[in-house]
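Field log, afternoon session.

UNIT: design team B
ACTIVITY: writing a sequence onto a fixed backbone
BACKBONE:
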């Protein structure tokens, strides 16, 4: 049966084996390296990752920032992350199980994050424009956004044909959505390529971009 958009069920089921996939670990490491190079995290910064999953990226970024809010809709993905936080002794990361689109001012304050990032999550959220507007509000003036996700793909990347996902993103269209959310797109770069046998049995290459954007100090009127 087709799952609904933003349903945590699939990720709850997959959480305990998530980190066993070497391509997932590899892309997360490349995403973390690219985010660090593009945004220069500092120990004074408050950061947020939405769709943090088991924390493959967040465990790399956490030592470089003051606080890190790790947000995900899947309790099971977050519990795998919590099992990593305990032995690391980190007091930087705070996990929150919520849908970033439905968070309120009581969950997270507007203008309070210097850095917001995500990896392979944007294509799982139905309302791309809405989530970018939410992020724009949460960023402090001058704050940075870094999003890693798939370029437009042939619709065969995900193994389950019934999974509700965007089939990657057109870079120019995403840049327009960032601008409409009041953010200044800075750069797109290709940071990784998944080489995989897709669900039609063909060997295919699926590039992943990192886009960075800044919230202007003087906000753009929408
Ligand atoms: C493909 S996984 C990526 C996980 C992690 N970033 C990684 O690279 O391993 C997408 C994650 O986004 C979460 N997610 C989906 N929609 C979300 C939303 N609206 N708000 C927060 N998290 C969401 C899922 O539960 C899942 O853990």
């Amino acid at each position: 049966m087709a799952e609904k958009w933003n349903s945590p069920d699939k990720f709850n089921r997959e959480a305990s084996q998530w980190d066993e996939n070497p391509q997932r670990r590899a892309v997360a490491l490349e995403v973390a390296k690219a985010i660090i190079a593009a945004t220069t995290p500092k120990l004074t910064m408050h950061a947020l990752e939405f769709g943090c999953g088991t924390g493959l990226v967040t465990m790399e970024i956490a030592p470089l920032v003051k606080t890190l809010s790790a947000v995900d809709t899947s309790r099971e993905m977050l519990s795998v992350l919590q099992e990593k936080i305990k032995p690391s002794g980190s007091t930087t990361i705070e996990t929150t199980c919520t849908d970033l689109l439905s968070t309120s001012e009581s969950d997270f304050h507007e203008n309070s994050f210097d850095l917001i990032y995500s990896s392979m999550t944007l294509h799982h959220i139905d309302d791309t424009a809405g989530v970018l507007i939410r992020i724009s509000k949460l960023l402090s003036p001058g704050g940075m956004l870094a999003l890693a996700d798939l370029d437009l793909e042939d619709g065969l990347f995900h193994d389950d044909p019934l999974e509700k996902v965007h089939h990657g993103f057109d870079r120019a269209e995403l840049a327009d959505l960032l601008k409409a959310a009041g953010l200044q797109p800075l750069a797109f770069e290709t940071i990784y390529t998944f080489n995989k046998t897709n669900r039609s049995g063909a060997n295919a290459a699926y590039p992943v971009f990192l886009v960075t954007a800044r919230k202007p100090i003087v906000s753009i009127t929408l």
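LOG NOTE: Residues 6, 8, 11, 24, 28, 50-53, 56-57, 71-74, 77, 99-101, 119-121, 124-125 surround S-adenosylmethionine (CB under 6 Å).
NEXT ACTIVITY: expression trials, pending approval
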